[in-house]
Amino acid sequence: MMNYFYVPLLILAFFSLTQAEKHEIEYGIEDISGPFVKYTVHIVNGITPKPGSPILQFHCQSNDDDLGVKFPKPGEDFNWSFRENLIGSTLFFCSFSRGQQSASFDVFNHDLDDQCKQCYWLVKEDGFYFSDSTKLYQKRYNWK
């Protein structure tokens, strides 16, 4: 009988952490304390502007959060911060388009990017470059 006492407490703890994560994403709160590491994903528009060239747009989301469609200006850094979910399976993915070019891929996947607390994606004319906080970029994906 005593074990059933802890079930509501666990559910309440899970709900509280999930709400804290959503607040941090929506309102940019930097100092939410908790047991989980904070990650930040940056998407930087590194495309050189040329007259008549198509503009970059992208749409990022996770299973819990939809960050909406973005149209960053050249040089602009769109970023968001979050904490892992309780089971450590947080994943954010984005779909990118620029004129007739497109690409979709995971921009944060706990299984792949756990060591990356500041994850940078640089979008260029020839593809997508990834870096951790060192900002030493390596090409990961091409436009389709």
From TrEMBL:
Its main location: secreted. GO terms for biological process: rejection of self pollen. InterPro entries: Self-incomp_S1. Transmembrane segments: none annotated. GO terms for cellular component: extracellular region. Belongs to the plant self-incompatibility (S1) protein family. This is S-protein homolog. It comes from Actinidia rufa. The lineage of its organism: Eukaryota, Viridiplantae, Streptophyta, Embryophyta, Tracheophyta.
